[in-house]
Structures are given as structure tokens and as C-alpha cells.
Amino acid sequence: MAQGLGEGGTAGKPGFATLIETTDWAATPLGPRAGWPQALRTILRLMQHSGQPMFLAWGKELSFLYNDAYVPILGARHPAALGQPFRAVWSEVWEELLPLVQRALQGTSTWMENLHLVLHRNGYPEDNWYTFSYSPVHDDAGAIAGMFCTCMETTGQVLAERRLRENEGRFRALLDAAPAMMRVTDRDGHCTHLNRSWYAFTGQDEATGLGLGWLEAVHPEDRPRAKAQFARAVAARESLRVDYRLRHVDGSWRWAIDAAEPRIDPEGRYLGHVGSVMDITDRREAEERQTLLAREVDHRAKNVLAVVQAALRLTRATDIGSFTRTLEGRVAALARAQTLLAKDSWVGADLETMLRGELAAFLGEEPALQARAWLEGPAIALPAEATQPLTMLVHELATNAVKHGALSVEAGHLAVRWWLSDQRLVLTWTESGGPPLAAPPSRVGFGTRVLDATARRQLGGTIALDWRPEGLACRLGIPLRRKPPAPDATDSATLTIL
């Protein structure tokens, strides 16, 4: 029996083969080695050459025999445990193991996975976990003579899995506390966790959201694209970024951006994806407004350039100085209109602010303006599309008043009144105290064209001019909700500006 067993052992302690040879077996229930049955010898040889922890409990006392791989499990009980009764070796857990031992001795094998045992193998209690099997063994006559065990300590694995579960629990608690919608998936791309924000936003629950159910909250038109991009990210173990419309709990569709990153464990294994879903509806609408605003600015800039070009073509003067002053005044009026629109984000402008700005360009600051002009009317917000045309119209009226009308003399005065009538702005421009008018002017200039094109064609309104001896009286009617004018709309009234 001694031949071929080898030495084995651990540092400072004899190995399995040495102990078998040097132990006085005659003083144990097993008796002298020479009398050991062949079945016992065969199992011992199997144990000696295996790197798997094993032990054999043999005979009536279940004498304990183990290989070198089992020594770390015994701890400080090695080598004294060799040959001792099983119940003495593991006395602190004997009551727990006894039912398993009895089943094996009755001929039934048992298998236990990650069984928790509190052992005192090093002189103090330790929590340990083991995966093992107990199998009956037979002597040479075929009778059950003991129990054979192959085992593995799984304490490290169990504790690692427990830490992983605890970390997962903390991770999910963190996700649930996040204000953004969060999602965790497994290796196959199936959703294993959705946080509270997702359920609160979409109205889904675990029964409808987990797995691939979360896709049901995506707009039907966006769903195929979102599903395909997510599948590609899972297959390639790569980042994901996709936007789609997501159903809100109130039934509306909100734009969302879904960004996910692969989860990799410390060993480099892919675990799935973790992603966040953010409502970007407000941002998207702001971007769309910005785009529309840029287009509006571009459109208005082109309109301004068109008006400037028209002013260049139609402005007439007796000398270059007059031409320059007239043209600069019209361009300045355009600039003031653009400034008013920009101040209110291109949504419109206050009518009185526009009027005061245009008259101040001719009369100076507020005290002088109040001495020469009377402005009266309610607060009215001009639509954006009406602001620039109406500014040019008022500028031409003021230019005429300064050159030829009431504002050309110190005694002259101007009254501007306005009100709303059936969603129309009615504005009257009344001059008095200026040079007497003998008759209406006979020549049509740029100003006349501006008045007609502005009031009728651009604003879809009406204009009426009354050339009274004491000064011009003009009445404008402008719909604040644009109605296209009739194609053949004309007005015979004229005003000499140039």
C-alpha cells in the first residue's frame, strides 16, 4: 500500500502518503494497514492522485481519511484529524450533516450546492460555504462500508456573488433616485430594470416595461429605428445614442434622447447596457424656434435689402446732399424697425414705441416731441410682419410733414391717434398749423408708392388722404390678422414726398 503513494504534504507538515505510512493504524478502529480491504486501498489511491479535495469516512466510526487537496479546508485541524471519527472532526456542524450522512449510508447519494456552515477549523467561528456530494462506498463483499465525498469550498464565490448582488441593489437604488429615466439590460438586450422615473413618465409597470416591453412606449413610427439601433449596439457591445418620441403618461408624445453604454465587469465580460433617457422636447422646440428665427431674420434681411434697393432706384433729389439725407433717413427707419423686432425676439413691436421712435428722428428727444406731437391710443402689439412696413409708412408721412407739412414750421402740430375696431388697427394722422395747402399735390413720388404698397398690398388695409387747407389728415385701417387685398385694389389719392 505504501509503494506509489508519494510524499505530498504542505509546508512544515507531512503529506497524505507519509501520514498513511507513519500512523499507528492498529490503535484505530481501522486496524493495521495489512488488513485493509481492497476497496479502501483503491479509494485512497484515487484520492492521493487527485487535485480535487476529497475525504473518505470508513467503517462503523466513520474514520476520517483525506487527501492533500482537502488540507486547506481542515485548517488547523490537520494533521490531527486523520483517522478520527467524522463526528469528532466536524463536531460543531455534525447535527447539520448527520441527515446527509445517514442518507449516504443508506445507499442514496446527496448533492449540496453552496451549503452554509459555521466552522471552528482555526479556533474561531467562520462563515463558510461548500458544494459537495456524499456517496456510499462498498467493501469487498459489496456491503456499504462508508461514505466518499468530493467537495469544493465556495466561500469566496458566494461572498463575491453576495457583494455583486449588494452592489446591484445599491446600483438600482441609485438609478431609482435619479431624476432621469434609467434602463439596465442583460447580455441579450432584454431590459432587467427600469427606474421609477421611467414608470412615472410613461405609465408603464414592470409587467409591461421589462424585457423588450419598453419599446411599446416608443412612437410606432420611431420604434423600428430605435429597436434596430439598440440591437446593433448590443451585438457590437458599443455605445448607443438615438432619439425618438416617447409616450407620456398624459397620452402626449415627447421627444427623448436615449444614450446607453455597455457594462463590463472587472474580468472584461460584457454584462449588458445601462442607459439614460431624457425628455428633450423643450430643447428640440427651442432649436426649431431658433431655426425658424434664423429663417425669419434671413427673410426680413432680404426684404430690407429689397426696400433699400427700391429706395436707391426711386429716390430723387436736386443735389447729392439731399439725395444722401433722404436715403439715409429711409435706411435709418428700416434699422429702427429691425431693432424693435430684435428687442422682442422678432415676434412683434409696441405701436407707440415705434411711433415715438420715428417722430424722435425728426423732432428730437421727448420734450421737443411732446411739444409738437400728440400721441394717444391703447397699448397695441404689432405683429412682426406688420412692424417694418408700418414703420416705413410712418417715416414717409413724417418726412412729408417735415418738408412740406405741419412740422416744417414751429407753429405746426401733429396729432396721432389709434384704436382697435373689429380686429383692425385704425390710425389717424392729423396735421395742423402748417403752411396752407392750396390743392392736393400733383406728382407721385417714392413716398406715395410706399404708402400705397404698404397700406394696401403688404398690410391688406386701406388708406384715405384728406388734403385740407390747414394740413394733411390721413386715416389708415390695417387688419391685425392679415387678409390678402383684392388684386385690383387701387387708390387715386396721392401724396408728394419727393
TrEMBL record:
Keywords: ATP-binding, Chromophore, Flavoprotein, FMN, Kinase, Nucleotide-binding, Phosphoprotein, Photoreceptor protein, Receptor, Repeat, Sensory transduction, Transferase, Virulence. The keyword Ribonucleoprotein does not apply. It is an enzyme of class 2 (transferase). It holds the Pfam family HWE_HK. SUPFAM superfamilies: ATPase domain of HSP90 chaperone/DNA topoisomerase II/histidine kinase, PYP-like sensor domain (PAS domain). The keyword Lipid metabolism does not apply. This is histidine kinase. The lineage of its organism: Bacteria, Pseudomonadati, Pseudomonadota, Alphaproteobacteria, Acetobacterales. It catalyses: ATP + protein L-histidine = ADP + protein N-phospho-L-histidine.
